[in-house]
Amino acid sequence: MKLLHHPDRKDLQLASVLYALSDPIRLYVVSEIRKHGEQACNSFKVPIAKSTMSHHARTLREAGVVYTRAQGTQRIMSLRTDDLNERFPGLLDSVLQAYDSSEQPELFTEQEEGLE
Amino acid sequence: MKLLHHPDRKDLQLASVLYALSDPIRLYVVSEIRKHGEQACNSFKVPIAKSTMSHHARTLREAGVVYTRAQGTQRIMSLRTDDLNERFPGLLDSVLQAYDSSEQPELFTEQEEGLE
DNA sequence: TCAATTGTTCGTAAGTAATCGAACTATTAA
DNA sequence: TTAATAGTTCGATTACTTACGAACAATTGA
């Protein structure tokens, strides 16, 4: 498969990173990776089509928020914690701290409950 | 004039704040307010029409990043530091620290130099 | 080889965002 | 009252974003 492009650490742009993190689904994805470690795209229980998830994964990757590697047919995403902390100290922590304390983590995962 | 709407502290949304901060002009405006204190909209040397600045000011205000009050014909913007720190501890600091250390503060202010 | 799994890419549609200039409002100063 | 100043709002344009399903590609397993 074609190589996935990842920006160099020095090329990370603050505005792009903030933009990538300004979407509820992407925030959720990043928070889940932070909590449970690297994840394949299909591990997130979000109510969107796989092509849409692919788009979000690409947005996060191209902003430099996640590193994506191929493993079999899966794409495993991990947080570029070191790069982000080096370039934007404290940013990732404060965003995820804010997310986990103010959003409902079950926003997507438990939305199927009680529907039948 | 009609009252400007400002969201309550409790209603601040992380994704909205991150989005408001994900634009180069808005980042610059916020950074300038942080460095020099409250500012009127016309104090920013940015290469955009005043209607566009009005739009950015509104985006920042509606996300809860700035508080805007009328003073004569001016709109004075100040950072909602306390509200932001209460809801999203460390976020504003890390964003502005990252901005000031990685962007060129003269991005807009000095772009006219050497053009004649 | 064939089918299933996982994800990407493409085409499309709907919605949103950034930008401008023109017209407007409100305030201040002459 | 008139003019200048500071912003807002409106309409239009252009561009981007999110979203979907269909088609495709790559890998794995039967």
From TrEMBL, chains A, B:
What are the record keywords, sorted?
A: DNA-binding
The organism's place on the tree of life at top rank: Bacteria
Q: Residues of the signal sequence? A: none
HTH arsR-type domain mapped to chain residues: 6-99
Q: Which Gene3D superfamilies match?
A: Winged helix-like DNA-binding domain superfamily/Winged helix DNA-binding domain (1.10.10.10)
Q: Which CDD domains match?
A: HTH_ARSR
Q: Which InterPro entries match?
A: ArsR-like_HTH (IPR011991), HTH_ArsR_DNA-bd_dom (IPR001845), WH-like_DNA-bd_sf (IPR036388), WH_DNA-bd_sf (IPR036390)
Recorded protein name is HTH arsR-type domain-containing protein
Species in which this protein is naturally found: Paenibacillus auburnensis
